[in-house]
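User: Fold this; tokens only.

Assistant: Input:
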Amino acid sequence: MASKNGLVAILSLCVIGGCSGNSQGNDGASGSSSGGSTATDGGSSGSTPPAGLMTGTPDGGSPASATDCDTMMASTQLSADLVIPGGQTVCVGAGVTLTATADVTIQVAGVLIVAGTADSPAQFIGGGQPSSWHGIVVASGGSLQATHATIRDAQYGIHTLPGSTFNIDYADIGTSFKTAVLESSGKIDHTYFRATTPPTIAITTEVTIDDPNGSMTILSASPAVSNSTFIGASPFTDLVRIGGDSSPVFDHVLVQNAHCGFHDYGATNNSPRVTNSIIEGMSYGVMAYTAKPVFENDVFQNNTTDVGLCSGATKANQPVLMGDYYASGKPVIDQACVQIGTAATSSATATIAGAGPVGL
């Protein structure tokens, strides 16, 4: 038995648990659970926990240290769901690779700490194709804390459900149907979001989890995303789709080479803010429907249209452009937006130094 004050056995729960069998999803996640692995606290008195399962309660310390973690994962193949129950902390350290098979979900009701390094990131991968595993689902009350993580080949790289928390720094998420679906508020910094061309093309205005148009989807949540890059894969798909009552903040980001940089389908309180960022190579920098996105001190360059459609908007609820720079000399604004009064104010006459990601 591994002790928190002794040697940590670096053995995978999935190997110990057998990782086989079909099961029912947890908190909206698909995949398996009855045959999956469950991290526990070592069992009741008289029981012997499996190898790789540390006993005791997390007691602080640096991320992914033995004293933080109930379980340390080793590189392994997951053939059934990995379930982290409430009250448990599972850690994935530098250089560890978890390879998931079809429909497998990492279900986080407790805490998942991912502590890779720049030279040796932790990796979560599937079969090399989008949707070859489900992804990481953070349930209500669960928490994802990740540094230097690579996530590939999932249906949803990261899916944070309402009531969950997350803090992600230096991640690289791609080759997935969607890189992230965010239904809770948290923080993302220094991260690459690499879009994938979807198997089908659908022109949809409403924002949903399963619409095939976006790389990141935000639904009734207000996360903060900074110093990050969104890279397009198709002129028919969007990079960030925002729906519901959402007021996310994007600061020092780069969005490039797709259909819409930001597709905003509004609700009563829908007002994302984008500052100190670069929007380039887009069919539409922003496409707004009954929403009030705010763009301040941003660079718009090489876009067919900078601000478009504004369907359903009014003068009280319209895109706001302040202090932005337009490489074409003036903003290219769809006629519908002009009709409701959208205009650029205090536009910059030269490109804005320091716009775009810092430290990425």
